[in-house]
Write a structure and sequence with these properties.
The protein is built from 9 helices and no strands. By secondary structure, it is mainly alpha-helical. It has one domain (45-169): Orthogonal Bundle (Tetracycline Repressor, domain 2), CATH 1.10.357.10. Helix 4 packs parallel to helix 7 and helix 8 (137-154) runs antiparallel to helix 9.
């Protein structure tokens, strides 16, 4: 039941952000009472904290060992995660959307959101080390998050695909 609640919360949060859902919405979607949602997650802060932790863990699993990929392949691999969010899942990056709401996020949720960006930047940093020249890891993450935002508002997946492609070209192995 806990996973079903988290799945419903992730779907809604990746479309509408932190304030884009209520426990009542989740209960209705999962087919339980609001009290049952509160049983598993006493507060929305705890729910979103668990949700972002799960998102970070899943991202780490997807990324795998950064030293197993050449720099260009690593950027393509990370870019594919954002392209999938846009074109297959039809959603934003959970932590990108929550980070945009930063000032309105509860204090206990912020470290989990930051952990996503720390994970991705560190992973990229290791993957890019053998490159002769490459954009900094944080620049690549910013380009992908921004590309996802712009692609979605323009309803043009080619924007994000182009950013991934151009970023890969800037890496000299």
């Amino acid at each position: 039941m806990k996973e079903a609640i988290l799945d419903a919360a992730e779907s809604r949060a990746r479309r509408a952000g932190y304030d884009g859902f209520s426990f009542r919405d989740l209960a209705e979607e999962v087919g339980i009472t609001s009290a049952s949602v509160h049983y598993h997650f006493p507060t929305k802060e705890r729910l979103v904290e668990a949700l972002t932790r799960r998102y970070v863990d899943r991202t780490a699993l997807y990324l795998g060992d950064p030293s197993a990929l050449r720099p260009r392949a690593a950027v393509r691999h990370l870019g594919a995660l954002f392209i999938r969010a846009n074109e297959v899942e039809d959603r934003m990056c959970l932590c990108g959307l929550l980070a945009a709401e930063g000032g309105g996020l509860p204090e206990q949720v912020r470290p989990q959101v930051a952990a996503f960006f720390d994970l991705v930047a560190k992973w990229l940093g290791v993957a890019l080390r053998p490159a002769k020249t490459a954009p900094r890891a944080v620049e690549i993450v910013a380009a992908l998050e921004g590309g996802l935002l712009i692609s979605r508002i323009r309803q043009d997946p080619a924007i994000l695909r182009g950013i991934v492609s151009e970023t890969v070209k800037r890496i000299e192995e």
